[in-house]
Specification:
This protein has 370 residues and is of the alpha/beta class. It has 15 helices and twelve strands. The strands form three sheets. Strands 1, 4, 5, 6, 7, 8, 9 and 10 form an eight-stranded mixed sheet that branches. Strands 2-3 form a two-stranded antiparallel sheet. Strands 11-12 form a two-stranded antiparallel sheet.
Length: 370
């Protein structure tokens, strides 16, 4: 079976009347809203992107001229609705497209994890359309199979795409994600401000989001308790190092402690969890989780990565223990596996080196179980 070809229809034809400004060209950092949305699909590897313009079409065309996208103008944008622009975009897609995303131009921060999961699910399910959900709220983008195009194109326009979904409910599914970007748009000024706020803080999940991620990946209660203890210890070490002049990112430590074991139960769970988090947009956190079992190198000054690594090595279940005690049972468990024993010895040695780097170099008091 050939690889499925994925497209995206991005609708940017409206006048943004509620926003009182033109949404697609609003700035997010150094780029516009429409550029950020397009680049999100480029990163995913979407082969064909159709942008439907309308109001200020020339400005959008100028902004996207080097983005290798197809641009088509809804000349009746002032008399029609988003649904009509969607139909124009679907008709513009190549015949060999199997699935396509449909997204408004002001939906720039949907996670790669969400988009990839939607592709996977629509490929294995009987659904012809899937809509993402965050905290019970339907959001963007939707993804649909080619056979669903006809249902949209033949619809009379009542209630737009939601009307098509309502009329074909048995063909449509929903997927829940821990992805606030699903429900973000810039319909009003306060919505735009929330997008800017999210952009400033999107690289590190809050405690609330971390807990939702744990539930999403169905983390067992004993792992949650272990992770909480690792987090507490990491913060304790952080506070002691702060007094010695070492500055660390507290939010990153909290997220690293709570989520370092989200891949538990999978082969090489550190790499699995790291891959998930990277796909969710948490690049720095991904690096910490990737090396929480074994470090690539040990720096001269400790970072958040080494703090989480050591804290994990000093916590057995949800109790603080010595490094020797933490590794003792592992040696018995793998006593007949020379390769595993070699790995265990390497990790124990690293833990001892990091312990010296932190506690001996900076003359910190021992941390006792609480």
């Amino acid at each position: 079976m050939r690889n499925k070809k994925i497209g995206a229809v991005i609708v940017a034809g409206g006048m943004s009347s509620r926003m009182k400004d033109f949404k697609p060209l609003l700035s997010i950092g150094s780029k516009s809203m429409i550029e950020t949305t397009v680049e999100n699909y480029k990163q995913l590897g979407v082969g064909e992107i159709v942008v439907v313009t309308g109001y200020r079409s020339e400005d959008i065309e100028k902004t996207l001229k080097r983005k290798n996208v197809s641009l088509i103008n809804n000349r009746d944008y002032d008399k029609t609705h988003m649904y009509d622009s969607v139909c124009i975009g679907l008709k513009e897609l190549s015949d060999d497209i199997d699935y396509t995303f449909i997204s408004p131009a002001d939906s720039p921060f949907v996670q790669q994890f969400t988009l990839k999961k939607m592709i996977y699910e629509i490929n294995i399910s009987n659904f012809e359309l899937i809509q993402p959900v965050y905290e019970g709220k339907d959001g963007h983008p939707i993804i649909l199979k080619k056979e669903f195009f006809r249902r949209i194109l033949e619809h009379d326009g009542t209630m737009g795409i939601q009307g098509v979904i309502k009329n074909n409910n048995e063909k449509c599914g929903k997927l829940s994600f821990i992805d606030p970007g699903i429900i973000m748009d810039a319909d009003r000024p306060k919505d735009y401000f929330k997008i800017l706020e999210y952009n400033e803080n999107k690289n590190c999940p809050t405690v609330e989001i971390c807990e939702k991620i744990q539930k999403y990946f169905k983390i067992e209660e004993d792992i949650v308790l272990h992770s909480q203890k690792v987090t507490t210890l990491a913060l304790d070490i952080c506070e002691k190092l702060k007094k010695k002049g070492v500055k660390l990112n507290v939010n990153l430590l909290i997220a690293g402690g709570l989520l370092h074991d989200i891949g538990k139960g999978k082969v090489n769970h550190g790499k699995v969890g790291s891959r998930w988090l990277k796909s969710m947009g948490y690049e720095k956190l991904s690096g910490i989780v990737s090396e929480h079992m074994e470090l690539k190198k040990i720096p001269k000054i400790p970072t958040e990565k080494e703090i989480i690594f050591l804290s994990d090595k000093l916590v057995k279940e949800d109790e603080i223990v010595s490094i020797d005690e933490r590794f003792k049972n592992k040696k018995y468990l793998y006593e007949d596996n020379k390769k595993a024993l070699k790995t265990i010895e390497k990790r124990k040695k690293q833990a001892e080196e990091v312990y010296k780097l932190i506690f001996v170099k900076y003359e910190l008091d021992e941390i006792k179980n609480k």
